[in-house]
Amino acid sequence: MNMNQNTLTTSGLEQVYDALATAIDAAGPEKTELFLVKLALLNAHALADPAVFQAHIDAALKDL
Question: What highest taxon heads this organism's lineage (predicted)?
């Protein structure tokens, strides 16, 4: 699901995944949740659209 005109290539998605995995490891198990919340809020601010952010939440919750 893509809500805007910009899309990442597969290579770009792999780069983002690697960066996220590295950051989660750097945060450590005791700070992972805080890191992910901060990251989500920063990305919500960058999106500047609460409805799109809610759609992303809904998509991420599917099939957990």
Answer: Bacteria
